[in-house]
Amino acid sequence: MPRLRAALETFPPYIPGKPPREVPGLESFKLSSNENHLPPLPSVLETMAEHVGNPAHYPDDAATALRTELAARLGVGIENLVVTTGASELLVALTQITSDGTTEAVYPWPSFEMYPQTTGLAGATRIEVPLRADGTHDLAAMAAAVTEATSLIILCSPNNPTGPALRDAEVRDFLAAVPERVLVALDEAYWEFATAGGTVDGLGLLADHPNLVLLRTFSKAHGLAGLRVGYGVGHPRVIAGLLKAVIPFGVTDLSQAAALTSLRHWDEVMARAAVISGVRDDFAQALRSQGWDVPEAQGNFVWLPLGELSDAFEDACVEQAIAVRNFGDGVRISIGPRAALDRVLEIAADFRAAHFG
User: Which family does it belong to (predicted)?
Assistant: First the structure.
């Protein structure tokens, strides 16, 4: 057998959300992957249908048109942007340009499952800082965890899977306490859904903090998860480093065209994100009314901190043709159609009656 790196034994693989079980008489719903349950905008679908190029040719490696219009939309220079095959590739590249066997990476936990995967694969020592009881980042503990070996800190706002968003003031204080030599990655994959007052504005922090880089994506609010388009915003030196680490020609011509059209309909995208946020708020409040301790929900999902009952709750959902994401200490439920959420509420009410009396 070939010899593989020992680091592979130190972290689990990424496990995508399970598909729902087919149950006779019930429509199946997948609420396990934080996908946008709405289809892309009609204009995006028209672009995809019309945009039939020659697959023998490579796409624009620099994603020039998309980066140019993104820069105008965000109020930054094109040199401040990199486009990648989803925010996941951006996370891998960030780890590659900062981390190795001599460094440490600090991130909140539980959070996005790729954080231990990418940092572990680089050989970095992983410092997982537990979230507070309400599902929020413990920024004081994260700052205290920084050592001379720390090269990368990852923040996630809204946090996946627990839901709370970081506040601008607390992040500013945190960045002031972090050495400038440490790269801080702010994962904002769900920023379009955040509605709480004072939520962190990553773009507003960049000018004062050249060690900050933002991770964003067209997968969630834009509904283009299957096309794999993410982007990073940061200091030109960081972006130049990332351009050396990302896969050449990774984002296809079709994906760039679809993302560009969606970007040009920004107001429509944000309006639909607001609708999903409203449904999320209603769903979270309905669960709270049943007696569940639901943390602040600012993404397109809701977290149930079920502890050892997580497996049983997932099984109850599976029996009703609903797929949710079980993390072992809780269950994440993506926002889907009203019919799906109504069924989850029925399951949750029955489950609570059976297990809590």
Answer: Belongs to the class-II pyridoxal-phosphate-dependent aminotransferase family. Histidinol-phosphate aminotransferase subfamily.
Cβ 170 vs Cβ 139: under 8 Å = yes
How distant is the alpha carbon of residue 119 from its chain centre?
Answer: 16
Looking at residue 11, its pLDDT comes to 79
Q: Where in the chain is the domain with CATH 3.40.640.10?
A: 51-265
**For residue 43, which of 252, 276, 224, 230 has the smallest C-alpha distance?**
224
Provide the token pair at 186: 């702010």
- Flag whether the pTM goes above 0.90: yes
**CATH of span 6-40+267-351:** 3.90.1150.10
In the chain, the amino acid numbered 277 is: S
Give the list of residues 6+ apart from residue 303 with CB closer than 8 angstroms, or none: 135, 161, 162, 163, 294, 295, 297, 330, 331, 332, 333
What is the gyration radius of the CA atoms in the chain, in angstroms?
Answer: 20
CA distance 103 to 150: 6
Residues 6 or more apart whose Cβ sits within 8 Å of residue 316: 347, 350, 351
Q: Find tokens 């569940």 and name the residue.
A: 292
Q: How far apart are CA 63 and CA 249, in angstroms?
A: 9
Q: Which CATH number is correct for 51-265, 3.40.50.720, 3.40.640.10, 1.10.490.10, 3.40.50.800?
A: 3.40.640.10
Rounded Cα distance between 328 and 326, Å, is 6
- Name the burial class of residue 279, with classes exposed (0-12), middle (13-18) and buried (19+) by CB atoms within 10 angstroms of its CB: middle
Query: Could you read off the pLDDT of 37-94 as tens digits, one per residue?
Result: 998 999 998 998 887 667 888 998 999 999 999 999 999 999 999 999 999 999 999 9
Compute the distance between CA of residue 304 and CA of residue 102 in angstroms, rounded to an integer: 37
CA dihedral sign, ordered 309, 311, 317, 322 = positive
Angstrom distances, CA of residue 232 to CA of 157, 216, 236 = 15, 6, 11
